[in-house]
Amino acid sequence: xxxxxxxxxxxxxxxxxxxxxxxxxxxxxxxxxxxxxxxxxxxxxxxxxxxxxxxxxxxxxxxxxxxxxxxxxxxxxxxxxxxxxxxxxxxxxxxxxxxxxxxxxxxxxxxxxxxxxxxxxxxxxxxxxxxxxxxxxxxxxxxxxxxxxxxxxxxxxxxxxxx
Length: 163
What we know:
With 163 residues, this protein is an alpha+beta fold. It has 2 domains: 3-54, no CATH class; 62-160, Glutaredoxin (3-Layer(aba) Sandwich), CATH 3.40.30. The chain has helices at 3-16, 62-74, 86-97, 111-121, 141-151, 156-160; strands at 24-29, 35-38, 49-54, 77-81, 102-106, 128-131, 134-137.
């Protein structure tokens, strides 16, 4: 087996066993150009060149859930919908796929929700997604992503991964 295949296999196993809360990856390069990956920097004076990668998005990690909780408190998400509506279904599925906490209000079944929507937007049309005070009319994924990113629900890398 060549050295590069062994390196790739060892890298795979090293990364697969890292803890879910790991935020940094260090690439150690020795004087001969050999590369190894670690979750900590090399010892001082060891002669390794180091490249560090900081991961901003950790699915299920503490950093992500804290950011999500802060965003949900400051900018709650509400989906105004009706039961038979393909755009409403797409909006709901998108929010669920991104694990965005949201409240759904059925404007067909609930007169108060219908009036609330009319007061907020000047008309009753669905779907409407409120991100805090911002209104997204219809299901346009890029618009929803932009508002969710501005509110702190998503980071740019999370939004790009769904395209």
